[in-house]
Fold this sequence. Notes:
Helices cover about 35% and strands about 15% of the residues. By secondary structure, the protein is an alpha/beta fold. The protein has a single domain (about 10-115), classed as Glycoside hydrolase/deacetylase (TIM Barrel). Strands 3-2-1-6 form a 4-stranded parallel beta sheet. A two-stranded parallel ribbon has the order 4-5. Strand 1, helix 1 (about 20-30) and strand 2 (about 35-40) form a beta-alpha-beta unit. The mean pLDDT is about 95.
Amino acid sequence: MPADEKSLYLTFDDGPTSGHTQWILDTLKSHEAKATFFCIGKNIRKNRGLFDEILKAGHEVGNHSDQHIHNWKCSVKQISDDFAECQKLHPFAMYRPPYGEVGRKSLKAIPNKKFILWDVLSEDYREDKSGEDCFKKVINEASAGSIIV
Length: 149
């Protein structure tokens, strides 16, 4: 993307989950913004309605594995099977490996997919970080074209 373009790419991992996902959808709608949701298969099965809402609202979706496994600890077959199980739920074109773990095994197990990582990690998953801390981190690190988690 050209550096003069003033776009940021908001991405959300690990959903859909009750509570958080609906709040995110409502917030995005109120700001007329779009995002990409990297979804876990087991969470889609638990919250199919929320997944359908994500799609209906026009957001992009990506495969984030079925069970949120550590790819570095798994065999090529385990990674491939986990990816395929999630892929049965939707024809995802993008893949974000759990924990950002990309290696030879991942690339071999999941050919012909767009691997999408990030350049700004808000660290919202950390219990020792406040919402304000996460916000400041994103503001300080983001630039035109940043992919934010």
